[in-house]
Specification:
Layout lengths: L8 E7 L6 H11 L20 H6 L6 E7 L2 E7 L7 H7 L5 E7 L6 H12 L4 E6 L8 H12 L3 E3 L1 E4 L4 E4 L13 H13 L3 H8 L6 H13 L4 E5 L8 H11 L11 E4 L4 E4 L10 E10 L3 E10 L2 E2 L3 E4 L6 E2 L3 E5 L2 E5 L1 E2 L4 E5 L9 E3 L7 E3 L9 E7 L5 H14 L4 E3 L6 E5 L2 H13 L5 E4 L6 E4 L3 E9 L6 E11 L15 E5 L11 H14 L10 E9 L7 H17 L3 E15 L3 H10 L3 E8 L3 E9 L6 H9 L4 E11 L2 H9 L9
Parallel strand pairs: 1-3, 1-4, 4-5, 5-9, 6-9, 30-31
Antiparallel strand pairs: 2-3, 7-8, 10-11, 10-22, 12-13, 12-21, 13-20, 14-19, 15-16, 15-21, 17-18, 23-25, 23-26, 24-25, 27-32, 28-29, 29-31, 32-34, 32-35, 33-34
The structure holds guanosine-5'-triphosphate and magnesium ion (MG).
Magnesium ion binds next to helix 1.
Length: 689
């Protein structure tokens, strides 16, 4: 059996902006617990969690890495996540696996873009948070300033749990009120501040406390957990991963105050019971049915596909038979692993709350639910809203005959990365999408170095789509009588836009078509209706006015004619195709284009240039914020079509200091002149008439 119990487990995600020191802190925590003999360096590629070749080369984490340590009677699973905005998907993906999100903040730079984003996302998923201010050893830092900034941005819930002392050489616990001098504020008032905050969540206890009564350790522990769970307390802890100051104290905090899998907020699982989805709350009971969620898939060069999962209920052993989602046939676990960076150690049992992995099960995908009973089919985790990747590259093989290899490489990369997308828009192009320039470069390097294929790249066609803005009806008769059997079909179609709240409306992915058969009295026999639907769908895919797929329309066939001998499927398909083109052109057709949200970081003196350039790109600024180091973060929206070469433009405006990330916001109609150009550029297929 396991050497520890569920009550002893702590699952912590180390998150925060790139360069905050999460990877070094992971090493420092492992070192403090005696797991590794010395702390590695990102620069030397010698850390436990940055083991991938590209992570070493780029000196940034690119994937979530899992390790564990035993400390203070607890078994702590740490997930070190990447902080670069382009790899944010891997940080988000780790959230369902943990009870606590530790947001690491660089003392030198304070709040950064990913600090804010992860604070918000963890709150939305009701995950207890703590803030770790790292690099307290560094020069020129303003720690009281960082604490103020945190409280201003994230509210009074942010309260120091400890304070630095000796000029950053150590920390003093203010919650348990240790003795000692601190570098700023004072132990007494910091102690009162955090305790006041904690007891606020329990009225009765607050009364006792205010009346001066001494609270028991257990009372304090329970109310502390409650305050964390309710987001009423976000403790701030200080440390230096480099010197080790505050690191053991951070491990102590995780062991004694971070919630165990039994204390954390329940994970949002949903069970589709046929009647509709209902909430399902897994019980961390070792004898219950096994239920686990896959939060990471890695394609390891040595062990092959690795599915990393968090067990939410029941016990998994090497003999457990696990079903993947709704699959009919289970697989046998065979070998169960615990991970330590790149190393994996076989273990004989995984208990509720623990993080384990299985190798070589090809059907395991990211976000899969593993379970040991057919009763548990239909259970899913409430989906995580990942940013929609919009940075696209159209790729073609450098050497002919490599297509197969490319498809294999892309499938493997896709399996590992929740923010990577492969599109085959039917133009013969393969388009790959990611969150930014860096993301795309990492993917191309991976294809070359790991999968041995090289590709040529160019900007992809913009994913415009067509729709209608008004209603119209039209009819079309297709009749052919040239020798042999004739063809006859006549359809009358009505078209209208789908209402906002229509369940058929799926602008991304689905095609947003509601097809209705309104034929009464057998004007067209039922056997031809599928042919009409087929014709409608063909035009939906090909576009009616400019060659882009159509979205969000309702088409009804309400009348028509047939011929007992000459009517056949092909005749109705042809009639429908022609009728669709006619009816669309009369229903105020529009071409929609993707509009993206941009987050642009540039030196503040470039603000004017960026604003001017954005407005020439039909874009607009929505907000801005100064950040340390003389930089400014600009939030803006712009049409994707205008951003083809944005990174190189930013580079030339800012001398290489600018960067940006983008995600899909919505689709919007293109201006009339652009619509005319797109229609003029379209060479429609000759139709049969
Ligand atoms: N002075 C000082 N430097 C530190 C400390 N912790 C980390 N660093 C340095 O900060 C840089 C970034 O550290 P990482 O641990 O790789 O940062 P990260 O948060 O993992 O960054 P990403 O993986 O890109 O998200 C490295 O040069 C570290 O040596 C610290 O406590 N003090
Ligand atoms: Mg890192």
């Amino acid at each position: 059996m396991s050497a520890y119990t569920t009550e002893q487990i702590r699952n912590i995600a180390l998150t925060g902006h790139a360069g905050a020191g999460k990877t070094i802190l992971t090493d420092a925590l492992l070192h403090a617990a005696g797991v590794i003999p010395q702390i590695g360096a990102t620069e030397k590629g010698s850390t436990v969690s940055d083991f991938d070749d590209q992570e070493k080369e780029r000196q940034h984490s690119l994937y979530a890495a899992i390790c564990s340590l035993d400390h203070g009677g607890a078994h702590i699973n740490l997930i070190d996540t990447p902080g670069a905005p382009d790899f944010f998907g891997h940080a988000l993906g780790a959230l369902p696996a943990v009870e606590t999100v530790a947001v690491v903040v660089n003392a030198q730079s304070g709040i950064e873009m990913i600090t804010r984003r992860i604070m918000e996302r963890a709150e939305q998923r009701q995950l207890p948070r703590c803030i770790v201010i790292n690099k307290i050893d560094a020069d020129n830092i303003d720690l009281p300033g960082v604490v103020n900034q945190l409280q201003e941005s994230f509210g009074p819930a942010c309260k120091p749990f400890n304070l630095p002392s000796g000029g950053g050489a150590g920390v003093v616990d203010v919650f348990n009120k240790a003795e000692g001098e601190v570098d700023f504020s004072d132990v007494e008032s910091a102690h009162t501040a955090i305790l006041d905050q904690v007891v606020e969540v329990d009225e009765e206890l607050a009364m006792l406390y205010l009346e001066g009564e001494e609270l028991s350790k257990e009372q304090i522990h329970n109310v502390f957990e409650q305050a964390l769970r309710e987001g009423h307390l976000i403790p701030i802890l200080f440390c230096s991963a480099r010197t080790g100051a505050g690191v053991k104290e951070l491990a102590d905090f995780f062991a004694h105050f971070a919630p165990s899998p039994k204390e954390g907020n329940p994970r949002p699982f949903i069970k589709d019971s046929g009647e509709g989805a209902e909430t399902f709350v897994p019980q961390p009971d070792p004898s219950g049915h096994a239920l686990a969620h896959v939060f990471k898939v890695a394609i390891d060069p040595f062990v092959g596909r690795l599915g990393v999962f968090r067990i939410h209920q029941g016990t998994i052993t090497k003999d457990t038979q696990l079903y993947i989602n709704d699959a009919k046939k289970p697989f046998k676990v065979g070998h169960l692993f615990k991970l330590q960076g790149k190393d994996h150690k076989e273990t004989n049992a995984g208990i509720p709350g623990d993080i384990c992995a299985v190798a070589k099960v090809e059907e395991i995908d990211f976000d899969a639910v593993l379970h040991d009973s057919a009763d548990e089919a239909g259970i899913r985790l409430k989906p995580i809203a990942f940013p929609q990747p919009m940075h696209g590259l159209a790729i073609t093989a450098k050497s002919r005959g490599d297509e197969q290899k490319i498809a294999k490489a892309l499938a493997a990369i896709d399996a590992e990365d929740p923010c990577f997308k492969i599109e085959r828009p039917g133009t013969g192009e393969t388009v790959i999408r990611g969150l930014g320039d860096l993301h795309m470069r990492v993917i191309l390097d991976k294809m070359k170095n790991r999968y041995n294929v090289e590709v040529d790249t160019k900007p992809p066609r913009i994913a415009y789509c067509e729709t209608v803005q008004g209603e119209a009806s039209a009819q079309y008769r297709h009749k052919k009588q040239s020798g042999g059997a004739g063809q006859f079909g006549e359809v009358h179609l009505k078209i209208s836009p789908l209402p906002e709240d229509s369940e058929f409306r799926k602008i991304n992915g689905g095609n947003g078509l509601e097809f209705v058969n309104d034929i009464f009295g057998g004007a067209i026999p039922g056997q031809f209706i599928p042919a009409i639907e087929k014709g409608v769908k063909q035009i939906m895919g090909e576009g009616a006015i400019a060659g882009y797929p159509m979205q969000d329309i309702r088409v009804s066939v309400y009348d028509g004619k047939y011929h007992p001998v000459d009517s056949k499927e092909v005749a109705f398909v042809t009639a429908t195709r022609n009728c669709m083109k006619k009816v669309v052109s009369e229903a105020r057709p529009a071409i929609l284009e993707p509009i993206v949200n941009l987050e642009i970081t540039v030196p503040d003196q470039n603000m004017g240039d960026i604003a001017g350039d954005l407005s020439s790109k039909r874009g607009g600024i929505q907000g801005q914020e100064n950040i340390p180091g003389g930089m400014i973060v600009i939030k803006a929206q712009a049409p994707l079509a205008e951003l083809g070469n944005y990174q190189s433009q930013l580079n030339s405006v800012t001398g290489g200091q600018g960067s940006y990330s983008m995600e899909l916001s919505h689709y919007d109609a293109v201006p009339p002149n652009v619509q005319q150009q797109l229609i003029a550029a379209f060479k429609p297929k000759e139709e049969d008439d």
